[in-house]
Amino acid sequence: MIATHIDLGFMEKDAVRRNDTCVTFDEILKLAQENKVDFILLGGDLFHENKPSKKILHTCLKLLKKMFPFHFEILSDQSVDFGFSKFPWVSYQDGNLNISIPVFSIHDNHDDPMGAHARCALDILSCVGFVNHFGRSMSKDKINISLVLLQKGSTKIALYDLGSIPDERLYRMFVNKKVTMLRSKEDENSWFNLFVITGHQRRVSKRKSRHCSEDFYSWQELKDYCASI
């Protein structure tokens, strides 16, 4: 299941709409359970702010504490996929946790890491094992886009991920060939390739600022940046 831009906490001080986003998130999780999904993929902005209120964070944790079945395995190197985390492995394989539906999420510009330690609310969810935060670039000089390799039966998915990056910086990285994408060298044509990129990453702009147009993200363009693993 794919969901995006839930923006938990939006208008939480409004007397009428304060619970809207939490109700929406609850509905998403219930639909996932009813449809017996294998995992949930969040495309950014789970939270409306980098520092959500205690009430919103508590509600999010409470909603995520649900149990669902899963039937797939992860094949890629998790130390690369989640290398920036203190716990570089997918949550449901942690022997200290009882997680039976994985949630993967990138960050967008509302809930992106910031501050002296570059942290965000997704890092808290990742630390407790409820969300697998991926797509985070740790360098300002280059971008290494990793991939998560998933398999269920004979179906294979290569999940590429890129969290929010300032548009001009991302444009500069692509133009200066500072972007590298990993790609499976084993049966590379047998994978469904899915690139998760944020909704606020500008593709079209009326401003004079530089940005990556949709052409930058076509497979014909991206394959030039690929390195096999």
From TrEMBL:
* InterPro entries recorded: Calcineurin-like_PHP, Metallo-depent_PP-like, Mre11_N
What keywords sit in the KW lines? Hydrolase
**Calcineurin-like phosphoesterase domain location, by residue?**
25-194
Name the GO terms of the biological process aspect. double-strand break repair via homologous recombination; double-strand break repair via nonhomologous end joining; meiotic DNA double-strand break formation; mitochondrial double-strand break repair via homologous recombination; mitotic G2 DNA damage checkpoint signaling; mitotic intra-S DNA damage checkpoint signaling; telomere maintenance
| Top-level taxon | Eukaryota
One GO cellular component this record assigns the protein to is: Mre11 complex
What GO molecular function annotations does the UniProt record carry, in alphabetical order? Answer: single-stranded DNA endodeoxyribonuclease activity
The record, for Pfam families, names: Metallophos
Name the record gives this protein: Calcineurin-like phosphoesterase domain-containing protein
Organism for this UniProt entry: Rhinopithecus roxellana (Golden snub-nosed monkey)
